[in-house]
Inverse folding.
């Protein structure tokens, strides 16, 4: 069966003061004790309002601040009305929009330096990496080292902005970095033509994103995982300009081990990636999960480490459908090292999680046995 057929078949209140007249009477009478609490004292600021709407309305009327006349203020002491509202507290802007006197404007972000290239290190490189990341280009971390990941991000940025693709930072790229706007990524839950385009590109390559339906679901996410891992990037399942470029270039990925004739499997434990090669060409790259290297015990009482051993093996036997073992269930297992097999599983996380077998997504396990007959070499590295 061909891979194409296999993949695509199916304001605050204040307390009310005493009126001036009453206060004068109290002073004349020689009153020295403080007045009693008003009947409607204002609750503290953090006291919840639990009254009914009618009660809250009555309280608001009782708590209304006294008029100037009530306070004994001469009418002429009131400030004249203003046609303009005073500036809000903390408003640093003046009428012309310039910062108020004594307020320093926020300095602009420092510009990336020109002349940065592979091998450069330090704060200028870190600034470049941070800017690339903000724009949606992944430089494989912000570590201040201009390595292959940063170079690739620079090249992708240059391609997307019509600059010569040199992998080094020139004056034109510095200007482009200052004026560029971030590109929105695509991730799980996204829908529309852009998603369909990515799905088609994935399926045209050595990945299986499922139906080209414009729905960014699990199958698309897992295919993006495989794309990212194949090129040495962390698997986050999000499509940025970098992933788009990787799909568009269709760069050939040679086998790491094995020959250039026939079919063989490479299991990369570091990248958690399983690849099928045929005649030296990458046929299928799959997100997978191997042994978690933790100690576990079987129901029978034996304990051992969950390890997927490295080495060179061949597929020796298989079981069609579900196989239930003392450690769990395996779908369409292909055994290549004793009881260790490539098999389908409902859970294929982005980290090693198995007891030693190599898990692949269920939809991959549906047709993987057709691609890998018994005797197929399996190289675990």
């Amino acid at each position: 069966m061909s891979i194409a057929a296999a993949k695509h078949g199916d304001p605050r209140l204040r307390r009310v003061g005493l009126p001036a007249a009453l206060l004068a009477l109290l002073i004349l009478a020689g009153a020295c004790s403080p007045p009693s609490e008003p009947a409607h004292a204002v609750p503290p600021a953090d006291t919840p309002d639990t009254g009914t709407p009618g009660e809250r309305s009555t309280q608001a009327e009782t708590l209304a601040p006294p008029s100037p006349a009530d306070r004994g203020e001469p009418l002429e002491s009131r400030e004249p009305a203003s046609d303009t509202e005073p500036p809000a507290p903390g408003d640093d802007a003046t009428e012309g929009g310039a910062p108020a006197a004594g307020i320093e404007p926020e300095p602009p972000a420092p510009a990336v330096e020109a002349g940065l290239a592979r091998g450069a290190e330090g704060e200028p490189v870190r600034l470049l990496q941070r800017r690339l990341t903000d724009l949606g280009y992944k430089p494989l971390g912000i570590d201040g080292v201009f390595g292959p990941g940063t170079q690739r991000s620079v090249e992708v940025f240059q391609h997307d902005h019509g600059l010569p693709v040199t992998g080094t930072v020139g004056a034109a790229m510095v200007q482009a970095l200052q004026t560029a706007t971030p590109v929105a990524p695509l991730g799980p839950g996204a829908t529309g033509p852009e998603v369909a385009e990515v799905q088609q590109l994935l399926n045209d390559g050595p990945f299986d994103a499922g139906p080209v339906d414009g729905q960014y679901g699990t199958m698309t996410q897992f295919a993006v995982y495989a794309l990212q891992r194949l090129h040495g990037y962390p698997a986050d399942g999000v499509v940025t300009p970098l992933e788009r470029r990787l799909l568009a270039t269709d760069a050939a990925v040679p086998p790491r081990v094995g020959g250039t004739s026939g079919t063989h499997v490479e299991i990369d434990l570091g990248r958690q990636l399983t690849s099928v090669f045929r005649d030296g060409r990458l046929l299928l790259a799959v997100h997978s999960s191997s042994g978690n290297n933790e100690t576990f015990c079987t129901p029978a009482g034996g304990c051992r480490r969950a390890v997927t051993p490295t080495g060179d093996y061949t597929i020796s036997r298989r079981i069609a459908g579900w196989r239930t073992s003392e450690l769990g269930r395996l779908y369409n297992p292909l055994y290549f090292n004793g009881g260790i097999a490539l098999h389908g599983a409902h859970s294929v996380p982005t980290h090693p999680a198995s007891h030693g077998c190599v898990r692949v997504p269920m939809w991959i396990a549906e047709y993987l046995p057709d691609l890998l007959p018994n005797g197929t070499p399996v190289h675990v590295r």
The radius of gyration is 35 Å.
